[in-house]
Amino acid sequence: MYKIAVAGTGYVGLVAGVCFAEVGHQVTCVDIDESKVELMKSGVSPIYEENLEELMRKNYAVGRINYTTDYQVAYKDADAIFIGVGTPEQPDGSANLSYIATVARQIAESVEKDCLVVVKSTVPVGTNDKVEQFIQDFLVHDVRVEVASNPEFLAQGSAVHDTLHAERIVIGTESKWAEEVLMGIYEPFHLPIVSVNRRSAEMIKYASNDFLALKISYMNDIANLCELVGADIQDVARGMSFDARIGSKFLNAGIGFGGSCFPKDTKALEYIAKQQGYELKTVKAAIDVNKEQKTMLYKKASKRLITFSGLKVAVLGLTFKPGTDDLREAASLENVPLLLEQGADIYAYDPVGANNFAKVHPEGKHGRGSITYVSNVEQALEGANVCFIFTEWGEVKAITPEAYEKLMMTPLVYDGRNIYSVQEMEEAGVEYHSIGRKQSNRGQGKGQKHHELQTIGL
Ligand code: UDX
């Protein structure tokens, strides 16, 4: 059992802390925000993650996890301090390391016994060397402090599961002692451990995330070509997926990748390369394709409709993916302002992300357009002229093709997540546009609303 302190209680820090407690370690999570600390003590998680609150309460009740703003008390006799604070993207694409620097300084001033500092946050290659030097420079007591890299690969929405059942743990150390401490901490997880040097560990994180981003952008690129040549991206992906060298995951074409990692980490690695005088062409391509892809459906719809002014537009899903309330880099954030600018009256539905979205786009009039938040899919679709699907929530997938035809005034659907079969939408009488597949033609279905599409000039 190790005495562990965790700096930062965001997705990375809090989930790591809770999972360390769950396998038996003694954990103290540190955050500067007093109200957040009180909230967590009462068993409430500041983020939405499956099973997280349950494990927070269970481990708090048995005294294996605690929360504090007092970093000195948490750090002074810890065996290991994990840093999980944010490294937000700066305008030039580089990572902002000021939160890491603040924590490093606090550690240097607080530790009173030998301690391993473990950087979990995603940081540019070479940062851990600098953090170690920084801590040594400011160290108050005569103790051994080393820095190790331990990048995090969890996905939002399945963070607890991903941590407890990770496919691999990557540790980057520069001494036998550091390696042994980290091996010991991860021993109760019984997971494969990849032990490398610090710089390789830092690079594994970027290389993995950017490879996945590239995979998605590649499929989106191919999807756009599929549309032009009459192929179907889902069939193409299925055919590719049987090749074990390609694999079956992350082949879903759509409206591009969002979230807190892929957009940030692709830009960060491109920036790192540029600093070395090297152009990372593949990653640049992933970024460029993604930028175009996010508004692909809007562009299609704009060509089709001439104007959105006076149209009721249903927007289904606002978050960057299902299972999270996170909106960072979500396609909705790019498309909704465009629709509002064009005078659309938007009726938006998201099971958990609507409150966050309303902070950016409050309910009511926005220039010529307006936005209203509704509490179920049916309310959004009722009387709508156009529907955009941005997130594949279960609640959205549960809606049948017939329901679109029945509820919408004019059943015209732009699906950014390829939820439906083109044929079934066509049979239901819905004009259906998706990504990398043929469009279903209106007028061929058994639905009754085609004349209405025509009467409003559609
Ligand atoms: C990702 C990585 O999966 C994780 O390992 C890393 O630690 C952090 O970044 P996350 O951002 O939570 O996790 O979500 P993920 O499920 O990977 O999805 C990212 C984006 O890619 C979403 O917008 C999703 O919709 C999109 N995506 C994913 C696709 O468009 N197609 C796919 O096939 C898969």
Can you tell me about this structure?
By secondary structure, the protein is of the alpha/beta class. The chain is built from 20 helices and 15 strands. The chain has 3 domains: 194 residues, NAD(P)-binding Rossmann-like Domain (Rossmann fold), CATH 3.40.50; 89 residues, N-(1-d-carboxylethyl)-l-norvaline Dehydrogenase, domain 2; 161 residues, 3-Layer(aba) Sandwich (Rossmann fold), CATH 3.40.50. The strands form 3 sheets. It has a 7-stranded mixed β-sheet. It has a 6-stranded parallel β-sheet with strand order 3-2-1-4-5-6, with helices on both faces. The termini are far apart. The relative contact order is 0.08. The mean pLDDT is 94. It binds uridine-5'-diphosphate-xylopyranose. Uridine-5'-diphosphate-xylopyranose binds next to helix 9. Keywords: NAD, Oxidoreductase. One of its GO terms (molecular function) is UDP-glucose 6-dehydrogenase activity. This is UDP-glucose 6-dehydrogenase. InterPro entries: 6-PGluconate_DH-like_C_sf, NAD(P)-bd_dom_sf, UDP-Glc/GDP-Man, UDP-Glc/GDP-Man_DH_C, UDP-Glc/GDP-Man_DH_C_sf, UDP-Glc/GDP-Man_DH_dimer, UDP-Glc/GDP-Man_DH_N, UDPglc_DH_bac.
Set out the fold topology.
Elements: E1 3-7, H1 11-22, E2 26-30, H2 34-41, H3 52-61, E3 65-68, H4 71-76, E4 80-83, H5 98-110, E5 115-119, H6 127-138, E6 145-149, H7 159-164, E7 169-172, H8 176-186, E8 193-196, H9 198-229, H10 233-241, H11 262-275, H12 281-294, H13 296-305, E9 312-316, H14 331-341, E10 345-349, H15 354-360, E11 364-366, E12 369-373, H16 377-381, E13 386-389, H17 394-397, H18 401-407, E14 412-415, H19 422-428, E15 431-433, H20 450-455
Parallel strand pairs: 1-2, 1-4, 2-3, 4-5, 5-6, 7-8, 9-10, 9-13, 10-12, 13-14, 14-15
Antiparallel strand pairs: 11-12
Helix pairs in contact: 1-3, 5-6, 9-11, 9-12, 11-12
The structure holds uridine-5'-diphosphate-xylopyranose.
Uridine-5'-diphosphate-xylopyranose (UDX) binds next to helix 9.
